[in-house]
Protein: Putative pentatricopeptide repeat-containing protein
Organism: Noccaea caerulescens
Amino acid sequence: EEPVKIKMLNYHSERLAIAFGLIFVPSGLPIRVGKNLRVCVDCHTATKHISSVTGREIVVRDAVRFHRFKDGTCSCGDFW
């Protein structure tokens, strides 16, 4: 049961959208993702790391608020 849950985290829509953005959005432009559900803790943490490693700004709009990830931090202050 637990390994299946861990594997399913790889297919969350925002992670796939961010990967697509990293490939196709030119450097220097922010990656913008819209989502109709709340961002899960794992995806929030992963997006912080991705923004830190890639040096890209990533903006995710979820059901509650905008999250602006830049240099490994989020505008929500990890409170959402």
